[in-house]
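Recall the central idea of this unit: under ordinary conditions, the amino acid sequence of a chain determines the structure it adopts. In this exercise we apply that idea directly, starting from the sequence alone.
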Amino acid sequence: MPIQRRDLLATLGAGAAAGLAGCVGLGGGREERPGVVGETLTLTTTTSTYDTGLLGEIHPDFEAMYGVTVDAVARGTGAALESARNGDSDVVMVHARGLEDEFMRDGYGVNRRDLMFNDFVIVGPAGDPAGIEGTDSATAALNAVADAEAPFVSRGDNSGTHAEELTLWEAAGTDPDGDWYRETGSGMGEALNIADQQGAYTLSDRGTFISQRSEVDLAVLVQGPIEGGPETLANPYGIMAVDPGVHENVDYDLAMAYIGWITSPETQEAISNYRVDGEQLFFPEAVSEDPDFQQYVPRGWSGNSTGE
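Accordingly, the structure predicted from this sequence is:
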């Protein structure tokens, strides 16, 4: 289904609210709170959710509700999931479905939920030496950059953005190599700064680019699906608890309270309303008129096809 600018359910009827709020209700359901005053919930997440300021905006509500602190540790998706594999976090919020599925299949995560989405964009210098502006194919744009050997900055950090970039290069049939292709091993904000300094192209999630736009002299040259660009640049986010059966030290109850809270209609609306320079950065996915129940299982999993 094509990604569109979706307004949060305008009225959030009682049935939708009851069925989708998760662990946190819209009113009376808040009496039973698993948090202990002074307790800390450790969330490993991507740099995009942290650098955009979203978590700093919404977390005070959860912290006040449960009397706890959320320690949001921002890393690339790969590093965030590795921390969770090691039992160093209670809940994970990332944006690379393939890596999320692997995490779930390996038994480290439970209760995954679709959370929100934005998209990726290809940005670069306004002069656009590779001539990719307005290209309606992300792979064609990358091939044009490679053919021109125009500088391209890759995060190179096993993040969700890096995983998306590698997928695009593979789909383009191009193995990026040479002095023009520069891996930085950095977060998105730093990668944008490096691209700016070097007059280079890079792949960015839209939210981080909007939040950093005033600090860099880069332009969006290839749009993602939110602005009518290719669906290959879609950027969905998921959230899941770390399995307490693997790591007894994790705070599963508080992790599930957090998942219930962040997927509730109230917090989804807060995510929808979060703006930087008047622009929406993230679009809620948990409260939907057309829920995707396949979000709970790895993509491609079909179960017992014989029905036995």
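The chain has two domains: 14-118+235-296, 119-233.
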